[in-house]
Amino acid sequence: MDLAGIRVGLVGPLPPPAGGMANQTRQLAELLRSAQAQVTLVQTNAPYRPQWAGRLPGLRAVFRLLPYLAALWRTAGHSDVLHIMANSGWSWHLFAAPAIWIARLRGIPVVVNYRGGEAAQFLQGAQAVVRTSMAATAGLLVPSAFLQEVFARFGMQAAIVPNIIDLARFHPRGGKLAQSAHIVVARNLEPLYDNTTAIRAFQTVQAQWPLARLTIAGSGPQEAALRQLVADLGLQACVHFTGRLDRDAMAALYREADIMLNPSLADNMPNSVLESMASGVPVVSTDVGGVPYMVRHGVTALLVPPAQPQAMAAACLRLLDDTGLWARLQQAGLAEVQRYTWGQVAPLLAAHYRQAIQAK
Fold first, then answer.
1. Cα–Cα distance, 154 to 37 (Å, whole number)
2. Which of 67, 205, 266, 336 could form an SS bridge with 117, CB 3.0 to 4.6 Å?
3. What is the 3-state secondary structure (H, E, C) of 129-196?
């Protein structure tokens, strides 16, 4: 089953800012077009027009929502299937649900591609509303068995279509573990991602590996507080904040790294973990959400409890002190990401599109 000729209306965010779902939306559009599908993008985070509307809290939602609804209506009129990249909270209510019902009015089948590590909390309070909208779709796609199980608890069946990793962009530098012990964190600077734990863990690592350095790639509301923490701990000389990086700069950073930390408190299928493994960088991650569904402790990554800096530090030191373990995790990670290539995922996606179109 191929994708050639299928007219896909793809609904989702695009960079900037570069984030997990935005990057996946952009990448999916590029890959679908490379497979000769006809793609029309409807951007959920399109810039405000006029720009000054974004400075009006009471009106900016209207200035974004009305053009979005108009774009949905037009796109649904010349698409075979609408593919909605969906998330929890207001993102669902403002963007996913309207897209579902506009497609229903236009007689176009919809597949909802849901992602987000906080799905259980969202569905707990909004399951009735979500189920009503999902009943109007042709199917629910999720990137992990974790989310499949979450939706099953709320009476909704989901099929797994994994995230896609671009191995041409994310690839290893070659070579062995460096004595400088370059550690990277690639999450936004928000409470959910608990960068505080990563910084405190690095403090312990740096005490034993004086040449170690930490790079934090991301932006967010906690930046000032995190910079202050680094200063309070006396780590300014060895901790670097890059701000948000585009995908090429991020790929280059991974190739300079020796270990990647994922300290998040909740997660689904973080792209940063896949990108790190594809780049030959062993991962130390919290054992939360969908992470243990995508990696195996001691085989493809090291997993630790959330919000425990000493446990994260101990896992890092274990890797730095055991080059054999570091190399085994590196090789196992490189093998694991082969499951997430476009060649593996495209036939799954094509089958769901065809099934939705034929059931119309």
1. 33
2. 266
3. HHHHHHCCCCEEEECCHHHHHHHHHCCCCCEECCCCCCCCCCCCCCCCCCCCCEEEECCCCCHHHCHH
Q: Rg of the chain's alpha carbons, rounded to an integer? A: 21
Q: How high is the pLDDT of residue 51?
A: 63
To the nearest whole percent, how much of the chain has pLDDT over 70?
A: 95
> Does 230 score more than 80 pLDDT?
yes
> For residue 204, what pLDDT is reported?
98
- Cα–Cα distance measured from residue 300 to residue 105, given in angstroms and rounded to the nearest whole number: 46
Side-by-side strand order, sheet with 182-185: 239-241, 213-216, 182-185, 259-262, 283-286, 302-304
DSSP state of 268: S
CB 236 within 8 A of CB 346: no
H or E element: which one contains 215?
strand 213-216
Residues 6+ apart with CB under 8 A from 237: none
Q: Are 299 and 276 in contact (CB under 8 A)?
A: no
The amino acid sitting at 344 is Q
Give me the pLDDT at residue 60, please.
Answer: 60
- How far is CA 144 from each of CA 3, 285, 340, 344, rounded to the nearest angstrom? 22, 17, 11, 15
The overall longest dimension of the chain from CA atoms, in Å, is 63
Angle at 48 between CA 90 and CA 60, to 5 degrees: 50
The span from the CA of 180 to the CA of 111, in Å, is: 47
CA distance 223 to 233: 15
How many whole angstroms separate alpha carbon 276 and alpha carbon 251?
9
Residue type, 5: G
> For the purposes of burial, counting CB atoms within 10 Å of the CB of 256, is it exposed (0-12), middle (13-18) or buried (19 or more)?
middle
- In tens, the pLDDT along 119-133 reads 999 999 999 999 999
Give me the amino acid identity at 251: A
